[in-house]
Amino acid sequence: MTFDEAKAALKEVKDANKAAKTELKSFDKKNKVKKGDDSGLKKDAKKERGLLADTAEAASAKVAESKELVKSLKPKKERVSKYEYPDDIKGDSKAEKRYRASMRGKAKSAGMTVEEYLEDPKKGDEAIEAAKKDKKADKPKKDKKDKKDKKDKKSDDKDDKDDKDEDED
Predict the structure, then answer these.
(1) Which of 29, 45, 73 is the last residue of a domain?
(2) What's the mean pLDDT in 82-100?
(3) DSSP letters of 81-144?
(4) Which residue, of 79, 107, 145, 147, has the fewest CB within 10 Å?
């Protein structure tokens, strides 16, 4: 049985259940039975009501079974993941989260979108390396003279401060 056939069968069973329940309700109304209390009915009427109640109960059970069948036959949704996880990470949600974060970080540092980076990671890695080289090239190189000048300036400032402390005493 396919999913569509099971769905159609469920609809038919639901209609039969509805009909059985309406028949029982109309019998109760006709014979003035309140809340299933059939103690005031004659023997034949009790028997008829029992049959109607059994039919309604069986129909309800069939509805439950049909619902389970439909649920089991329902096709699973195929979700396409944006990320291709390595085998050692699959199934571990925390590791997958770290992996996604690292991919987003790499894509950002490469100046690409995540989709572009995931399509061609080698190209992204090359862009990252190029960005690192550009960053190093942009930094001005500090000469040893500059370092010595800063050191001398600090020591001069310190000496001036010591002189001021001595003058105050």
Answers:
(1) 73
(2) 87
(3) PS----TTTTT-HHHHHHHHHHHHHHHHHHTS-HHHHHH-HHHHHHHHHHHHHHHHHHSPPPPH
(4) 79
